[in-house]
Structures are given as structure tokens and as C-alpha cells.
Amino acid sequence: MLRAILLLLFAATASAAQTAIPTAALHEGRASVGDLEVGGELRGVPGGATRYLRDEDLLHMPQETYSVTDDSNLKPKTEVSGVALDTLVHLFAQSPDSAFAVAICYDKYRANYPRDYLDTHHPLLVLRINGQLRDHWPQSEYGGSLGPYLISHPFFKPAFKVLSHEDEPQVPFGITRIEIRREAQVFGAIRPRGNWPPDSPVAQGYLIARQDCFRCHNMHGEGGTMAGRSWLELARIAHEDGERFRHIIRNPAAVTPGAKMPAHADYDDATLDALRSYFNTFAASGASLRRRQKP
User: pLDDT tens digit string along 116-173?
Assistant: First the structure.
């Protein structure tokens, strides 16, 4: 009951915010290194153009404050304040009802926030931690800054499970840019080739890959580039060497020493088979990539 009430309050806040802040808050030039880049399909902005939101712009938007206990980037019972991602979508998207947010970090990691994630988890663009602005934030677990922005949640309860993959919190830090995009366009880049029933291994593998792999691997200009290995390269490995593909996912550091990719030791054989089945739908394109890469 409490969760339902909170979600109703979140929706009311976003609705009020939509008319509270004009799109004039988007600036054409950067005023400081801490300005948030905003791009994608923005209302009243030429396609492909970048605009900027300054700290004072964001701090004048409707603020929400929560005590979080389950964010891997923060100590338990940390107070966070900021602007709901859904508020930004409603304020600046050309078509708010079909738009979703993409958070891009300085290391080229990307986190995607489709409509169902926004509605269920209410992610927050954090502006203050324990009442402090970014100059006084704690360091990340890697020793660097959490800023200029990070994303957290008021709470996180997994909303779905596909085989042994459970819905994961998208809590990146070091965010420098937010893009407001159309879900069909972004996820369309990695939609499996062919027509597959929703309960097929290919469809299941797609749902896993778009939440997990797509954060660090890219396809046709969409997705993250942190890993330095494209979607078609993953497809080629999955098609040509299934055992290596499985080892990379379960224990990447054992295959490539120093790999930053997190291990998925909890993925069972059915989950790995589903991912391989999905990536195999790109096998022809992956083989073409290999031929082009040969000297």
C-alpha cells in the first residue's frame, strides 16, 4: 500500500513539474565543467543539438529527497536529493509519453531508462548527498569522484526475472550527459533479427542483453562503448566459440586479465544458452565484420 501511495505521489510531482519549468532553461553554451549536457529529441531544439542545464537550473526544479539503503555506490541510510529522471523527460522531450532517458558517463558507460523502468523504480538524478553539493561528496569505491552527477532510487525492488537474470538497478555515477530518446529507435538497433515468440530463448536473451550488455557494448551508434568491443564482435564470438562466450560472461577476468566487466557466475546454462541464441541472430553480420578486419 505504501509503495502504491509513493508511486502516485511521484506521478503527481512529474505532472506538476511538466508545466512548472520552461524549456528556456536549456542553454546553448556551457558555463562550467559541471553543467549537465542534454541531447536527443528535445522539444523546440534542432535534432542532434546539445544543450546544457546548469546547477541552478536543476536546483530550481522540483526536488525530491530520500534516505536510500540499497545503493551500491553509497553507504546505507544515505540521504539523496535531486530531480526525477521522469521529470526531465516530461519537461524536455518532444514526445514525453514515448520517450525514455539514457545516462552517459565520462567513461562511455551508458544506462538506459525505458518507460517501464521509470514508472516502476522512479530513478533520481542526484544533486545533493547528505545535503551537500558535489564538491563535498564522498569518493566512489574506485577512489574517484561520484560526480558530476549520479543516479539513485528511493528504493529498488526487482520488477522482473528472465531465467537467472533478475532486474538490476541502474545506478551509474560520473554522469556527464542525459539523452532523451525514443525507445523504439535505441533498442531497435539490437532487436533480434527475425520474428521470435516472447518465450523463446532468443527473446529472453534479448531482454537480458538490452539491460546488461548494452551498457558497455554498442551497435550502430547506440549503446555504451566502455568495453571497446562491439555488438557484432560479441555475436561473432557467440557463433564461433560458444564455450569462450560462456566463460567471458561467467568470469571475464579469467579470459582477459584485468577485464572490468562484472562476472555473472550466477547465470545458469539456460541463461547463457539464451544469450548465445540471441547473439547468433547477428551471426551473418558478425562474420562480415571479421572478414573486413582481416589484413
Answer: 999 999 999 999 999 999 999 999 988 889 999 999 999 999 999 999 999 999 999 9
Q: Would you call 103 exposed, middle or buried from its count of C-beta atoms within 10 A (0-12, 13-18, 19+)?
A: buried
201-293 adopts what CATH topology? Immunoglobulin-like (2.60.40)
**b or e along 138-169 (b: 16 or more beta carbons within 10 Å of the residue's beta carbon)?**
eeeeeeebbbbbbbbbbbbeeeeebbebebeb
At which residue does the C-alpha cell 542532434 appear? Answer: 48
pTM value > 0.85: yes
Supply the DSSP string of 241-266, one letter for each residue: -HHHHHHHHH-HHHHSTT--SPP-TT
d(CA 196, CA 79): 44
CATH topology of domain 2-188: Sulfite Oxidase; Chain A, domain 2 (3.90.420)
